[in-house]
Amino acid sequence: MKKIKLESVFNEFTLMGIAVSGAFYLGEYWEGIAVILFYLIGEWFQHKAVHKARSDIKALLDVRPETATVIYNNTYKITVPEKVQPGETIEVKVGEKVPLIELMNGLMIVSGNDAAIAIAKHIGGSVDDFVKIMNKKTKELGMKNTKFINPNGLPVYNLKEPSKPPMENISTPRDISILAKYMFDNYEKEVTSITDKEIYSYPERGFCKNNTNVLLQLIPDVDGVKTGYTGNAGYCLCFSMKTYKGNNKSDCDNRLIGVVLGTNHKNKRTQASMSLLKYGKENFATKNIIQKDQLIGKKYIYGIPEMEVCLKAQDNLYITCKQNENIKSEVTLKEINYPIKKGDSLGVIKYYNSDGIELGRLDIISENNLEEITFKNKMKIFLREHGF
Fold first, then answer.
1. CB distance 92 to 80 below 8 Å
2. What is the pTM of this model?
3. DSSP H or E stretch at residue 189
4. 214-238, pLDDT tens digit by residue?
5. Would you call 361 exposed, middle or buried from its count of C-beta atoms within 10 A (0-12, 13-18, 19+)?
6. Dmax of the chain from CA atoms?
């Protein structure tokens, strides 16, 4: 991790971690979602009590606002907002210097809400500016039903009007899975180096806690991602697990990503997640359906045997399908005319499952050049182009 550039790791990667650090308020129902329970009154009293206690302490001791200095290669000073919401923290102390990677560990492993605020201010300049970055990224990724109001996911109550519902981050299982896939596609090693830890220990500060994702202890191949909870969203989890190829030669290693929202107990969250992983592993496989440069067929321009064009796959194509599912292919070719250069795109091959749903597609290209031909064949082409 020491060699990783700050800007290359803590942009979308940090966005993902902070985005799921709290639970998300549901915008739609989806498979695996339980009934949402509301705890508005209880959370309001908790919030008010903490707020009052903090105010009393400041009044008695005249304590300056909490600050923390984050270092990564160089030293950067940041200010943690005074009004930290109730919840898990990694207990950043006044004036303490904490390496940025340790804040990331605290954020992703033990849901450190104070760490989320500190990182947001460091990366974005301010919490509000970082939230703008988060929302911009959701649009880029096509997360159509997601909107963030803060980096830690906690509800924001209006204590002057406690009867009103709190403002909250809003998302859906589909959107969260899109974000998780993007994260693994781009930062798999960086992410799993954190989320795969069962215990987070920071001896210099006497800090040691278990990962809130108990699936790590139950299933060896699970390596992430993040738990969350609020009264409205319930107990939530975005999880991932490596899967390995079976006996079929075309099978490939892959990763399952799942999202469970809205359960009313930690155990139910775990049970729902394990059920989804079991279903995915037992019923689906990832296959290398066609390999790069694999011959697809041959085409003869105007039916002339000497004017043969070999058609091949431009790249490898991987698809995820049901075990032992009947996969159908469909080839669509462009109008092929002389001359042809090696690598020219000549069409597309598509693959469908038994329900007619497209699983993947790949360009078909020419394997050979067809530029220099005999005078005899040129005459054949001329005659056929003119209807003879």
1. yes
2. 0.69
3. helix 173-195
4. 999 999 999 999 999 998 999 999 9
5. middle
6. 103
